Amino acid sequence: MDQMGIHYNNWIVLLSFVLAVTAAYSAINLISQVSHSMGRIRSLWLLSGACVLGSGIWAMHFVGILASRMPFEVGYHPGMAFLSMLVGMFACYLALRFVFTPYPKRWRLIVSSIILGTGISGMHYIGMFSMEIEATIHYSLLKQALSFMIAVLFSYMGIYLFTRFKDDRGFSKWKLCSALCIGIAMTGMHYTSISASYFEYDVWNSTKPFLMQTDVILLTGVSLVTLFMFTISGGAVFLDRNVLERMAYHDPLTELPNRHGLERYFESDFFRGTSGAVFFIDLDRFKSINDTLGHDIGDMLLQEVAGRLENCIGDNGKVFRLGGDEFLIALPHCTLEEAGESAQGILQEVKKPYTIEDNELYVTASVGISLTPVHGTDRSALMKAADTALYTSKDSGKNKFSVFDLEMNRYQVRRMSLEKDLRKALARSEFMVVYQPKWDSITNVTVGLESLLRWRHPEHGIISPVEFIPIAEETGLIVPITYWMLHEVCSQNMLWHKEDVATVAVSINMSARMFEGESLYDIVEEALTRSGLAPHFLELEITESIAMNNMEETVVLLSKLRKLGVRVSLDDFGTGFSSLGSLDEIPINTLKIDQVFIRKSKMHSKKAIISNIIAIAANLNMEVIAEGVETTEQIELLQSLGCTVMQGYYYGKPMPVNELGQWFLDKKAV
């Protein structure tokens, strides 16, 4: 019997350390991608890093065995050798998953380092157990405990350094330091454990020394595992740069960079010039194309638009798709004059006809522009300014471009403030109803009233309907406001009847939003029932756009309301886009001539339009009312053309309830 320690080939020992550090650095590079990924991709990066690190531990161990000179032949149990690699990978995965939180606490670092140290040690001892030798291995427990402590201590140092830079994707000296620590944890544990081990064997049964590095099977296994390790690293990098990165930073429909690509572009490229421009682009009427022709046609239209935008910009800048029908263009070297020229070219190019699956489509764009450094020196400020300018383009008629200025910003700030307050106005009873008389100029009596909404803001006073009604329409708040107004108007009109102040119909303006659901009839019926008002004393005023939108459904709903006894009038007639061929199909009682025509009634063309509207109403057995009457000349003209019922400041301005009561008394006294 004999006992012998182990001697090493120093060059192979160095090779094992280099292999351990390389595996650790490759794994760290992979795991650094986790912070920039989401969902299953995060787990994929974590698993890849664990596989590389675990296989690196395994390869380092058996290269370390190759560095050992032993006086007997050594074989290996393949199942146990493979199990040792799986144990290493599993421990690495647990350790990395446990520590990978946004802000890992110290106890997590300690537990993670214990798991990794245990994995390194477990892999080592299972690997040693897989050796088939004609000898017995003896261990010094104290030194084996020391080897375990080395594994845990240096694992902790490596993990701690890793958490400091885990979001960095490029080269970092701290990554290298972390990899060195983890490499020391592997090799330190291995060689400390081996040095604390000795073999007891029968000297007569072993006649020649055997150098492990000549073992072809072991060399082949180590080579394959090393190849596997680098294949995963290289494949993951290729996948990241050529597949995952494109998925993360590009829009799949148009293949343009998306919001993530936009952020990266602004961080790295945009602000290199002394000046630049940001264009916020939104397509006009795109939703109607989507709704009428389907989303497939809409998607193809977006692809066509994306191509045209790229052709317009060329190599001067970059085009991004933000989502839906919104695009953004960044021109890093652009003056105000050049921005205006580019915007004009974009508008001209976008509005050219599109032919998509035998459909000839027309679409326009609205553009908002901001400039750096005038309007901001960071991405967020420039996008906000360009978005504000875009709203101005939309509000001023679309198919236009606007350059941001401070007045726009004040307008948007006020608009946002009003929207916030508008959401609370109904609950705070800040709305009031005013009434404007409808006057029969022949009999000199009030034949009706139009109810109008006013907002008494606690800080800004009376807010113009022109300012807050569009906000209410856009946000949908107009629906509950109109419900409240229906109940308020019906109750007030019934009170006038009881007090014998007036017995006339009162009209309420209807929003298109009220016709989107199926509850308008029920709400009107409820308001009439609760107030006790007869239906013919309530009139609903609709616009031409409401009448022509989903015409069949609108006609059915209006017909039900007419059968109930409620009156219907068509407001602002002549200013919309209705077809005269459909006018007779819409169940209405009254046509209202818009004040635009009355105000310009001295013009021969406007006079002709007024005359034709009155004639149309007469031929269709409809009543006719002229809005915006302010002078005796207008009254005489309207009377000569056959219109006797008028509404305007000449007869009475919109008045609150208390003033209107006195107005009625004054008119009766006359």
From TrEMBL:
The keyword Transmembrane is assigned to this record: yes
MHYT domain location: 8-200
PROSITE patterns linked: EAL (PS50883), GGDEF (PS50887), MHYT (PS50924)
Domain EAL: start-end pairs: 415-668
GO cellular component: membrane
Regions crossing the membrane: 12-32, 44-67, 79-100, 107-126, 146-162, 174-196, 216-239
SMART domains according to UniProt: EAL, GGDEF
Cited Pfam families: EAL, GGDEF, MHYT
Keyword field: Membrane, Transmembrane, Transmembrane helix
Domain GGDEF: 274-406
PANTHER family xrefs: BIOFILM ARCHITECTURE MAINTENANCE PROTEIN MBAA, DIGUANYLATE CYCLASE DGCP
NCBIfam families: GGDEF
UniProt-recorded name of the protein: Diguanylate cyclase
Native species: Paenibacillus wynnii
